[in-house]
Amino acid sequence: MRAAVPQYVGTDFADCPPGHRFGLYFPVWTDDWLLDKEGKGAALKQTLKLPSHAKVILEALRRRQTLLLDTIPENARLSIEARSTAPFATGLGMEHPLENGFAFLNPYGLPYLPGSSIKGVLRRAAQELAGEASEADRQGWSEPAITALFGLESEDGSKKHSRGALTFWDALPDPAKGSLGMEVMTPHYGDYYKGETTPHDAGQPNPIVFLVVPAGSEFFFHLTCDTARLTPDLTASWQDLMRAAFNHAFDWLGFGAKTAVGYGAMRQSTAQVAGQSVQTLAENSRPAALQATESIWSNATLRFNPGSKEIVAYFGNRSTAGLRGQQAQDLMNQLGERAERLKMQRELKGIAVRIEQVGNQLLLKGLA
Fold this sequence. Notes:
Elements: H1 18-22, H2 40-45, H3 52-69, E1 77-84, E2 104-105, E3 110-111, H4 115-130, H5 135-138, H6 143-150, E4 151-153, E5 161-163, E6 166-168, E7 181-185, H7 190-193, E8 208-212, E9 218-225, H8 232-253, E10 266-268, H9 271-282, E11 293-305, E12 310-315, E13 318-319, H10 325-335, H11 338-345, E14 347-358, E15 361-367
Antiparallel strand pairs: 1-9, 1-10, 2-3, 4-5, 6-9, 7-8, 11-12, 11-14, 12-13, 14-15
Helix pairs in contact: 4-8
């Protein structure tokens, strides 16, 4: 197999970023310039690893975002760090010999999630929260707030549009272990989908490999707000509203493609992970933003997600990052007999909790 490039370019592209090997130098062609259908998987394996200089570029791009954020007032910006709990895919609809493409940020050849896609997911999260029956479940969201922050997009042909106050930056994932991953989908009724026959069990399955960012990868979401477009109430509460939208998106929606079958699931990073990786990313460029401040929420509500075993604290329009694993179990132990009520009813009101703020993140530290 060979890449579709002139001979003088050579055949060794191991030092190129994944996006260049996946696009410009994809080695899946025979000497007759025909697609080697049996060699797709082997060709894809050659595109996965990030070489050392690509990691340097990725770190520089993410540091550039951090330094740009430092020029924006704290009440006009928000950053959320998350870690994927399932493979992440985006740009699968792009044309490619594998039948499934992938979104890379050019000219760098690095995977990314466009800000427009992030906006779409969070708008959907806000709409779902605004449609909840109780005021507590809405967490401050309403149709006027959605229009002010995300803008107006008419669907009735009236052509009424307005720009929202938020700007969503592209997210640049840091792939776990410095490498992308491979997944396989296997349609079993290709002939039926093409309209050539009825569905039957004698059809030949067609395995299709595609590219993903593996589970355990790190994502930083950044957004800024033109507060001059907002009312005083929204100016004071937009960050809490967006934290609630992120939490809902992490719990129920996911990011990227194929979210209906579990891809793109994420969770907000724990306090330890958030503190370490933000410090590394910023390289001490904004130490004041990372100073932890602790407060007490004397009348908070704890909510328990039985699927993810996650505990989140809510107070008015504010919410914390979720606790999972041993940290969640430690909190359950502190609750004592009330832990069973939390598990059964999924909600426990009137609880005093300790909250630590690190940068823009609110972290649940335990009972007060």
